[in-house]
Amino acid sequence: MPYVTTPDGVQIYYTDQGSGQPVLFSHGWPLSSDAWSVEIKKFADAGYRTVAHDRRGHGRSERTYSGNDMDTYCRDLNAVVEALDLRDIIVIGHSTGGGEAVRYAAQYGQVQGRVAKVVTAGAVPPIMVKSESNPDGL
């Protein structure tokens, strides 16, 4: 099975099918890349390269006690993107994966033209905790 090792040594599983412009799928909580099976096939058949990963602690990726936060998820996703040298990516995320897709694009998308588009479906907001920078808590 294909794995990428993150900077902190965690093994992240991914699937990579087809060829063409890459479409990167990020699954929701508590799913795995298998949740995108139909979409992976449809997009690959339509001429796209499809990549989906199992977030740490999910599916076939390594389970960790720490690193279960959006910034670490994005670093993990970036490790997959860099290992596969993906560029001009269409990032699609559902639920937690939608939040991950937006955060990834914001933090890493401008690096070497990595991200072309972001699509979210039922995405979690970036932060819901009431704080000084988020006084309404939404």
Descriptive account of the structure:
The mean pLDDT is 93. This protein has a 6-stranded mixed beta sheet with strand order 1-2-4-3-5-6, with helices on both faces. It has a single domain (3-121), classed as Alpha/Beta hydrolase fold, catalytic domain (Rossmann fold, 3-Layer(aba) Sandwich). The longest helix has 15 residues, at 70-84. Helix content is 27%, strand content 24%. With 138 residues, the protein is α/β, with parallel strands linked by helices. The chain is globular, with a radius of gyration of 14 Å.
Which key phrases capture this entry?
single chain; six-stranded mixed beta sheet; alpha/beta; Rossmann fold
Briefly summarize what is shown.
Helices cover 27% and strands 24% of the residues. The chain is of the alpha/beta class and 138 residues long. It has a single domain, classed as Alpha/Beta hydrolase fold, catalytic domain (Rossmann fold).
Number of helices: 3
The CATH architecture can be given as 3-Layer(aba) Sandwich
Q: Which topology does CATH recognise?
A: Rossmann fold
Strand tally, please?
A: 6
- The helix/strand order is EEEHEHEHE
Strand order of the largest sheet: 1-2-4-3-5-6
Total count of domains: 1
Based on CA atoms alone, the radius of gyration comes out at: 14 Å
- Cα(first) to Cα(last) distance is 39 Å
Strand content: 15-25%
Question: Stretches where pLDDT falls below 50 for ≥5 residues?
Answer: none
Largest sheet: 6 strands, mixed
Give the full name of the CATH homologous superfamily: Alpha/Beta hydrolase fold, catalytic domain
Shape: globular
**Nearest-integer average pLDDT:** 93
Helicity level: 25-40%
Q: Can you tell me the CATH class?
A: Alpha Beta
Helix/sheet category: alpha/beta
